[in-house]
TrEMBL record:
Residues 104-116 have a biased composition (Basic residues). It is found in: Nucleus. Residues 8-23 have a biased composition (Polar residues). Residues 88-103 have a biased composition (Basic and acidic residues). PROSITE patterns: ZINC_FINGER_C2H2_1 (PS00028), ZINC_FINGER_C2H2_2 (PS50157). GO terms for molecular function: DNA-binding transcription factor activity, RNA polymerase II-specific; RNA polymerase II cis-regulatory region sequence-specific DNA binding; zinc ion binding. Coiled coil: none annotated. It comes from Hucho hucho. This is C2H2-type domain-containing protein. The lineage of its organism: Eukaryota, Metazoa, Chordata, Craniata, Vertebrata. Keywords: DNA-binding, Metal-binding, Nucleus, Repeat, Transcription, Transcription regulation, Zinc, Zinc-finger.
Length: 488
């Protein structure tokens, strides 16, 4: 008690610039940074040490003047020359090489955290280095460049993780499943798959997530905010990565190709999901009917067939189970066709239709029959073709029992029972049960003859041309001696 009463206050400590004291050792390590140390015994909540009746301003403990170091260590003056070992002194005499580190240490002692606030977005940081790295998001500065591929990064840690792509190094291995990772944070998120840990709950609906970024994205579903818009079609997204992926649909660029079937994709993750279909593995099963799926999103869509849930409703009253299906449907009202072919200019309402159309220019037929080798430009055509081998006719008429291999054939057949003729000629008003019949009829008005025989004669319909060829009314002569053609 007597020793405590005899302890000088921080403001009355003598100067000790040259004695062999703990304070002088600390002074040598400061690299000529002028600071003023505080009493580390101060309790949290105080604004700062009192000096000559005045409070230090808002915790800013960096001095701009060259003042000697003044301290009180458990009541012992630094100028006394006594080599005291004290817990508080041990904590204070850390190796401080920069003013920022000393400032952090002082603020920890008084229960305050450093605070660096971004003027652009308002985000706060406790470390200056983290604040500087964050600011590069706004300035788009990326000073760390990969020497192999040229990709740049905002921080050295990002570059280090990226370089493992080139070296193949994956230092983080899961002891449960054996999967390896290049980055520690990816490894950490993966472990939560095994533990089931979801530490980030949504306060609005209670749904939990294993990553904070997933929670942030999820919150936008409650607010409805979609800050990322496509300049070409106006479609909005709640994530920048979704906008980037969407933009590829306009360009038609699909850089990721399946090495088994040749199908191409705009996004690597979509290719990865597709490749599971070749393995035959279907780990996601419906608990109501037992049907299995290779991708969890397919299971979610399937489960809505049991619940009948159609939460997305168009202004016309039609409802849909998926938001994407509603968006596509709405284009039938607006007439919007945002996906254009760069070769012929034809436009489409759905990106998949553009992809299929582009194969008419490239001649690409990525879907092959494993029984006869015949190739097709669309998977649906392959599925239909395979029924010629299996004899399967899954579409049956509920009135006469006749079966068909394609649903479109069943629809046409059913009109023979109902008498429905939905296709009408806008010239004469005649109606037809099939669109193909209407197209053939229209040629009687236009005079169009699109079917041309080898001999040069044209026909409005395919049937008459074939008849013309079969009854040998067509005589093909050498170009040097053209023969007259009898009337068909």
């Amino acid at each position: 008690m007597d020793r405590d009463r005899a302890s000088p206050s921080p403001s009355t400590l003598p100067e000790s610039p040259g004695h062999n004291s703990p304070g002088s050792a600390l002074l040598l390590g400061l690299k000529r940074v002028s600071v003023r140390l505080v009493d580390c015994r101060k309790t949290a909540g105080q604004s700062g040490p009192v000096r000559e009746g005045h409070e230090e301003g808002d915790g800013d403990l960096i001095s701009s003047s060259d003042t000697p170091i003044r301290r009180s260590l458990g009541g012992k003056g630094l100028s006394s020359g006594e080599p005291q070992q004290h817990p508080v002194a041990d904590e204070t005499e850390k190796s401080v090489s920069r003013s920022e580190q000393l400032k952090k240490h002082q603020q920890r002692g008084i229960g305050k955290k450093p605070h660096h606030c971004c003027s652009d977005c308002g985000k706060s940081f406790t470390s200056l280095s983290g604040f500087i790295i964050h600011q590069r998001i706004h300035t788009r500065e990326k000073p760390y460049c990969c020497s192999q591929c040229g990709k740049s990064f905002t921080c050295p840690g990002g570059l280090k993780v990226h370089q493992r792509i080139h070296t193949g190094e994956k230092p983080y291995r899961c002891s449960v499943c054996g999967k390896c990772f290049t980055a520690s944070n990816t490894f950490k998120y993966h472990l939560r798959i095994h533990t089931g840990e979801r530490p980030y709950p949504c306060l609005d609906c209670g749904k939990s997530f294993n990553q904070s970024c997933n929670l942030t994205t999820h919150k936008l579903t409650h607010t409805g905010v979609k800050p990322y818009s496509c300049v070409q079609c106006g479609k909005s997204f709640n994530q920048a990565v979704h906008l980037t992926t969407h933009k590829l649909a306009h360009t038609g660029v699909k850089p990721y190709s399946c090495d088994q079937c040749g199908k191409r994709f705009a996004v690597a993750s979509t290719l990865n999901r597709h490749q599971v279909t070749h393995t035959g593995v279907k780990p996601y099963s419906c608990d109501q009917c037992g049907k299995s799926f290779a991708v969890v999103s397919s299971l979610i869509r399937h489960q809505r067939t049991h619940t009948g849930q159609r939460t997305y409703v168009c202004l016309c009253g039609k409802s849909f189970a998926l938001a994407s299906t509603l968006t596509t449907h709405q284009r039938t009202h607006t007439g919007e066709k945002p996906y254009s072919c760069d070769q012929c200019g034809k436009s489409f309402a759905v990106s998949e239709k553009l992809t299929i159309h582009q194969r008419t220019h490239t001649g690409e037929k990525p879907y092959s029959c494993d029984q006869c080798g015949k190739s097709f430009s669309q998977s649906v055509h392959l599925n239909t073709h395979q029924r010629t081998h299996t004899g399967e006719n899954p579409y049956s008429c509920d009135q006469c029992g006749k079966s068909f291999s394609q649903s479109v054939h069943l629809n046409s057949h059913q009109r023979t029972h109902t008498g429905e003729k939905p296709y009408s000629c806008d010239h004469c008003g005649k109606s037809f049960s099939q669109s193909g019949s209407l197209n053939s009829h229209k040629r009687t008005h236009t005079g169009e003859k699109p079917y041309v025989c080898f001999c040069g004669k044209s026909f409005a319909h395919l049937g008459p041309m074939k008849k013309h060829q079969k009854v040998k009314m067509c005589r093909i002569s050498p170009p040097s001696d053209p023969a007259p053609f009898p009337d068909a």
